[in-house]
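Show me a record, fold above all:
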Amino acid sequence: MSLHQVTRRAALARLLTGAAVVGVATRPARLLAAATPGVRLSDGTLTIDFDAGMGSRLSFRGRPITPATSAAAVQLVDGRTIDRFLLLDHGEEAVAGPHGGGRRHRLRATAQGTLEQQLAVTFLDRHPGLALIDVTYRNTGAVPLAIAGWRVATHDLLPHPDGAWSYAGASYPNRRDWVQPVAPGFQQHNFMGMNGSDYGGGTPVAVVWRRDVGLAVGHIDTVPRLVSLPVAAQPGGTRIGMSGDAPVMLAPGATFALPPAFVMAHTGDHFRPLDAYRRLMAERGLAAPAIPASSYGPIWCAWGYERNYTPAEVYGTLPKAKELGFEWAVLDDGWQTSEGDWKLDPVKYPRGDADMRAFVSRIKADGMRPRLWLAPLAADPGTDLLRDHPDMLLLDRDGAAQNVSWWSAFTLCPAYQPTVDHFRGVVRRIIADWGYEGLKLDGQHLNGVAPCYNPAHNHARPEESFEKLQDFWKALYDEAIAANPQAVVEICPCGDSFAFHNIPAMNNTPASDPESSWQVRLKGKTFKALMGPSAPYSGDHVELSDGGDDFASTYGIGAIPSTKFTWPKPTTHPTDTLPPGGFVLTAEKEALWRHWLDLYRTNRLAQGIYLGGLYDIGFDKPEAHVVGENGKVHYAFYARRWDGPVELRGLGKGSYALADAFTGRSLGRATATQNRIAATFERFLLVTATPVAA
């Protein structure tokens, strides 16, 4: 026996004796005899090297990007961790299915002969650099195993002198940025469930990236799962992975499968992995619906008048909104007596339904499309609905209701059929009876709900409320489309990181109460990945952007302009939430609003193709975005102040004439090889590159 073989056998013996003991006697010698050396799996872009103890290391295009680590582990209730397994065998096979062709590798490993790990790694021809990860554990011992949690696809992206950035799909009450730099000490747990009474849910993907390479991890189940995707700065890089903490008692012979996961190595920021995730999920049957052309219409919203608006104030503003080029008129919060009952306010609409139908007809007569605000699943205390149907409430394990903080309301259970039927009826009345052509479904509570323990609902598991929220929204969407096949259904989960599984139930979405122009842009880039490069995304009310007038951030990312101006004067019922003077459209604003609307209507960049892989939103300076439209290439650069060159990436063959889209000034010419121009600007620079005929 060679020295190498002796050393390897000794190392395997140490691995076996050092592994976490799980309660029964084992036969190390028998397992050593069955063990197999490490194995290399690769699609030519992503390589995964497994050692004999199932430690794994990732490489991208032949270059290691993570150290070897135990990427998968199980935590036991008694505090012990099983993170080293002995690799027993490996096989591979060609596969074909909803994701097309590929190669599947099957690895089997054991921990002390008591817990078997079955790992399937699938590379897909359509998605180079991405591997599907399926893990199942089997209790091969004689006593039950009490599992407290697990982790999978956990790796440390090696450090880079320039640092790293991250994208996280979790929602938090402080409405933090979805994209953040990974500073020393950075840590975010990214639980996909509730991180506040009414903030939760999200997109089950996390991404970390350096200037030269990135790593993404997520789950691809077609229902949302209560997992976490933690990201944390480490001395040796940036850690990313997926974990769960739901306890499981694994009986002898029983198996436990983790949610199907993926890991992807890539270049650029979070756009490419989120775009790949969108395409994977579409192949699994979860995709955005067809988008009506009207979904791209510019939006005027009456929220500038707030809840105490009067119909006369809305009527008085409609002609000006139409004149400026806005196509939608959205009636926001305040038309109802309460959240939950959704009865018409008798002061504003004394004749009830007849007055609301007349209101809708007036909007249409002024040449605009009517859309109505609604906050499903919220019910105020004291409403008729809760008096007559307290069974609809979502209750925690102690019998307490889940709060919706913005309206001081309670959450109803979306997985309880009477709740679904009630809101289908509300939607039917709004679209089919009153004649609205769209819905604005609004509120931070829309994105996720807590597990429901209400005994009246007879849930098979409390988690059904969370998992079936997507079905609730799809039921409302289907009801709206049945009443009007061209209806626009907007979901606005205020401040949340949008729940991807809800996308099939909407054909329009806003920036959802952005707290800065940076959020308008980063959310736009994210949505163009998750919903498609022509996603009908609006920058939300421009009054929420930096300076209250930053249409440039909306225009440049291919978003739909939106506003909540009042005219000719502020609301007659101001509140302390309004800025001094409210949101009145002054003459100066009117000229600026008109200019941006003219630009949008000329180019309709929201219907163009957002080219999100050309620039890195974290590392590239100045920040840049690109939209392709009818052969032209539209660039948008953003910085507080910039004086230096900018690079026009993505140009095709031939020469392009360059112009400042905002001022019309000529900026010369460029080609794919001579694509740098000198630029001096504050806030933004918009460059339109038009092909020049040969």
About this structure: The chain has twelve helices and 38 strands. The first helix runs from residue 3 to 18.
